[in-house]
Design a protein that fits this description.
5% of the residues lie in helices and 64% in strands. The protein has 414 residues and is mainly β. The protein has an 18-stranded antiparallel β-barrel. Strand 11 and strand 12 form a beta hairpin. 27% of the residues are buried. This is Beta-barrel porin 2.
Length: 414
């Protein structure tokens, strides 16, 4: 089965949230097919309020998006190659300077030897319009800002079909932005991990994993200076090297034929080379629950507590702990019509009581989504959905609310 296209961790606006999700939903349906190759076209339109996510604004717009999707799933002896990709051209009706081309590509090679050795080599890359109001000390911007994310991963396992499994992995991530104002969020990092997993029973899998992450923010802001040529203030930046170490205790429990529980509890510690950034030492973790009581109904619940380095603005939001949860579900009204809903909340708090020279801060972002998918025929589908995003913040400039709604059709040829 081809890899399902993943969305970026953050999307540029409620509009793109609606568009990309609408594009990806039918694409996922196609990748569930057993055909070794597919290709198709998409066309959609959405209406969004508060394009720039301002605290008090009425900047509405309509966006038309055309796209291409393609994928393949091939067996190569014992190996399996999967590729999926999408390309979108987004055209704004009023804010034409925001017109952009986005893409999302992902591939993986699952390999195995004659013995108990196997693994995965994977890569993914995405390009999209970045968030206009990202917070974290950055004033909202009102220009096109392109965000690009790349990730490469290698995993090797020994003893997959045995009671104990040894697993090692390496992951490289990098992120870039076209807007100079977002320079502090540019990063690259490498993570190595080694863990052992035990399966004491058919429904339970336990693991102990050690992880170490080393990375760099090449241009983290450290102050202001006056440009002698223009006599205007400019941001002074310096590289920040960071090092994070985690010990993970994991568990996967299949509580029944229709329910699965995944947990992780970690002891985490991160250090930064810049004195102005607070180091972190504490407990992080996550819980995920999937439940499918019937063939038509499915629910999922996720909760996590971690630093922004791992959960929000990768490797940049280092001095704040976030707690987040997400609840989603879907229901098959008929064999061709499916309805889904999702809500999530992310709360970040930072206090100066730790001794760091930072101000108290609070950030609470909530997202709501409801969608309807109609499979007209085997190769033709239509998705319509509504999204709402809102943020409450201790800094009034970062608070906003926005809505979007739209529909996208997709035709697949294989």
């Amino acid at each position: 089965m081809p890899i399902k296209t993943n969305l970026p961790a953050r999307l540029s606006s409620p509009l793109l949230l609606a568009l990309v999700a609408a594009l990806s939903a039918p694409a996922r349906a196609q990748t569930d097919d057993t055909k070794p190759f597919y290709a198709g076209v998409t066309l959609g339109a959405s209406r969004v309020s508060n394009v720039y996510r301002q605290s008090s604004a009425t900047n509405d717009d309509t966006v038309v998006t055309g796209g291409l999707v393609a994928g393949t799933d091939q067996r190569l002896g014992r190996q399996r190659l999967t590729l999926d990709g999408s390309l979108q051209d987004n055209r704004y009706s009023s804010n034409k300077d925001l017109n952009n081309r986005a893409y999302n590509v992902r591939g993986a090679l699952n390999w195995q030897t004659v013995g108990n050795l196997s693994g995965v080599l994977s890569a993914k890359s995405s390009r999209s319009l970045a968030d206009f109001n990202i917070g974290n000390g950055i004033d909202p911007i009102f220009k096109k800002n392109i965000e690009r994310n790349d990730e490469y991963q290698a995993i090797a396992r020994l003893g997959v079909l045995t009671r104990y499994t040894l697993e090692g992995g390496w992951t490289h991530k990098r992120r870039n932005f076209s807007a100079e104002e977002y320079a502090r969020f540019i990063y690259n990092q490498d993570t190595g991990s080694l863990g052992i997993y035990a399966t004491p029973g058919a429904s339970l899998r336990l693991g102990v994993v050690g992880r170490q992450t080393k990375g760099k923010n090449p241009r983290y802001p450290v102050g202001l200076a006056i440009d002698p040529g223009t006599l205007k203030p400019v941001v002074v930046s310096a590289p920040n090297d960071y090092d994070r170490r985690d010990i993970d205790l994991t568990a996967r429990w299949a509580t029944g034929g229709s329910s699965t529980l995944n947990t992780r509890i970690s002891r985490s510690r991160s250090e930064n080379s810049l004195d102005g950034l607070r180091d972190f030492s504490g407990t992080t973790g996550s819980v995920g629950w999937d439940w499918q009581p019937t063939g038509k109904v499915q629910f999922n619940l996720q909760y996590s507590r971690d630093t922004g380095q791992e959960s929000v603005v990768q490797a940049a939001d280092l001095d704040r702990v976030y707690t987040s949860w997400q609840l989603g579900g879907s229901y098959a009204l008929t064999s061709k019509v499916n309805i889904s809903a999702k809500t999530s909340s992310r709360v970040g708090r930072r206090t100066s009581s730790s001794g760091a020279t930072v101000a108290d801060a609070m950030d609470d972002t909530k997202l709501y989504n409801i969608g309807l998918r109609w499979t007209v025929s085997r190769g033709l589908s239509v998705v319509c959905q509504y999204d709402r995003a809102s943020r409450d913040s201790s800094i009034a400039l970062y608070a906003y609310s926005a809505n979007s709604y739209g529909c996208t059709g997709q035709a697949i040829f294989d």
